[in-house]
Amino acid sequence: MRKWERILSLSICLFFVLGGLDVEAQTGSIKGEIELASANQPVRRTPSMARYGRSSSSSESNQTKKIPVVIWVEQKGFQYDKKSEPQVLDQVDQSFQPSLIVIRQNDVVRVLNSDPLYHNVFSLSKVKSFDVGRRPKGEYLDVKFDKYGTVDVFCDIHSSMTAVIKVLPKETVQWVQLEESGVFEIPSLADGTYQFHAYAPGYQTFDSELVIKNGSTVQLTKIELQR
Q1: Residue 211: CB partners within 8 Å, gap ≥ 6?
Q2: DSSP string for 79-90
Q3: CA distance 217 to 75
Q4: Number of domains in the chain
Q5: Pseudo-torsion of CA 102, 211, 33, 173, nearest 10°?
Q6: Per-residue confidence at 203, pLDDT binned at 50, 70, 90?
Q7: Does 145 share its domain with 90?
Q8: Tens digit of pLDDT for each residue in 143-177?
Q9: Which of 10, 57, 182, 191 lies at a 20 to 30 A Cα distance from 135?
Q10: Are residues 143 and 182 in the same domain?
Q11: Residue 61 banded pLDDT, cuts 50, 70, 90
């Protein structure tokens, strides 16, 4: 190979290497902090429909139980095309674990019973209505969620059991889940316009439009979720 050809080849290699580094450097992020309003007040949740005439209030105190928070961003035209493994909504010690499951639209949740007694998990949500029936220990049923929104889940046998399945739209680029209110970061976002959302069970969803330019970091002021 002649000298000028070697120089040209090396220049092309450096162009792609440096170009790749530049692309990586141009990704931006969103940072902020979430706070739940009136933390000393009980959170009111949807009652469990009392299908058999049984009253079942599920109000809980923030002082005794952490309330998880999910933050996500959507982008018009984005499509997540990878197959996701089912997330497990387990039943342990007569409670749902976890109490909040976050999935994308068209994902599957595996409703599993790990208790040595029967459970009957159901939802009458408009987003997804289902009933897994009476299931003994070790049995499960896979449920697919083809619409996005909030699904309140209950047990027909144990009225104190409640959980939430948050189904995010197909256009969701990323999400992060916090155990409770606090600081968060959504990293590695390409330049563009995003729809930003924050949600906690029992609270109103916060919505905003954000723009990332030249790999910038968007630093949000503290967000307070309202009831």
Answers
A1: 192, 193, 194, 218
A2: ---SPPPPEEEE
A3: 17
A4: 2
A5: 20
A6: very high
A7: yes
A8: 999 999 999 999 999 999 999 999 999 999 999 99
A9: 57
A10: no
A11: very low
